[in-house]
């Protein structure tokens, strides 16, 4: 299964942990003290998902966070069915940039479902660290735009699997997506039968 059925895009400022989030979900790893190189353009990873008796391929585009790659990021969220818009819960500037990307999605990809994610929640183990934006402000905003909100830690794995499970569940809950997936499965089965016939002839 190589075709991407569910296109997901990661958006947000640099250093908010988009790449860490992707790696924790797809490869179940966290690099810790090993620094990540800034993503240039976008990185891609795919994972086969099985849910409620359905199997499909999720393709995840991890876009560059630097503003100089902003125009390039727009290329990668075209046609995305889900967008994970990340911000660092200790960084107010990253929250402002998250709202910028949400406005972009609303303008250009209105059918894309948005998931706002506060990253690095493990920092609260240090009682001296405070939120840059109060939680009620974030939840009021996300409720107002009808987006899902979740807080994650790629370091501990907290809520990472839950986030992608929610995205997958929402994807299958859309009748249009379910129908497209069923049609793809039927076509794949026909292709397989056709190949068998050719081999035997």
UniProtKB/TrEMBL annotation:
<dbReference type="GO" id="GO:0003924">
    <property type="term" value="F:GTPase activity"/>
</dbReference>
<protein>
    <recommendedName>
        <fullName>Ras-related protein Rab-24</fullName>
    </recommendedName>
</protein>
<dbReference type="Pfam" id="PF00071">
    <property type="entry name" value="Ras"/>
</dbReference>
<dbReference type="InterPro" id="IPR027417">
    <property type="entry name" value="P-loop_NTPase"/>
</dbReference>
<keyword id="KW-0547">Nucleotide-binding</keyword>
<dbReference type="InterPro" id="IPR005225">
    <property type="entry name" value="Small_GTP-bd"/>
</dbReference>
<dbReference type="GO" id="GO:0005525">
    <property type="term" value="F:GTP binding"/>
</dbReference>
<comment type="similarity">
    <text>Belongs to the small GTPase superfamily. Rab family.</text>
</comment>
<dbReference type="InterPro" id="IPR001806">
    <property type="entry name" value="Small_GTPase"/>
</dbReference>
């Amino acid at each position: 299964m190589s075709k991407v059925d569910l296109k997901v895009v990661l958006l947000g400022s640099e250093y908010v942990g988009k790449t860490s989030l992707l790696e924790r979900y797809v490869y179940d790893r966290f690099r810790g003290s090993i620094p990540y190189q800034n993503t240039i353009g976008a990185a891609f990873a795919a994972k086969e998902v099985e849910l409620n008796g359905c199997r499909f391929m999720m393709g995840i585009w991890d876009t560059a966070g630097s503003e100089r790659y902003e125009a390039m990021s727009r290329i990668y969220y075209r046609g995305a069915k889900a967008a994970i818009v990340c911000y660092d819960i200790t960084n107010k500037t990253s929250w402002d940039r998250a709202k910028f990307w949400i406005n972009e999605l609303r303008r250009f990809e209105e059918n894309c479902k948005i998931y706002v994610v506060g990253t690095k929640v493990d920092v609260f183990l240090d009682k001296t660290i405070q939120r840059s934006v109060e939680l009620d402000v974030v939840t009021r905003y996300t409720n107002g735009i009808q987006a899902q909100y979740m807080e994650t830690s790629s370091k501990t794995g907290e809520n990472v699997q839950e986030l992608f499970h929610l995205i997958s569940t929402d994807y299958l809950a859309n009748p249009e997506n379910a129908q497209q997936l069923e049609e793809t499965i039927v076509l794949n089965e026909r292709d397989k039968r056709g190949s068998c016939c050719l081999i035997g002839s």
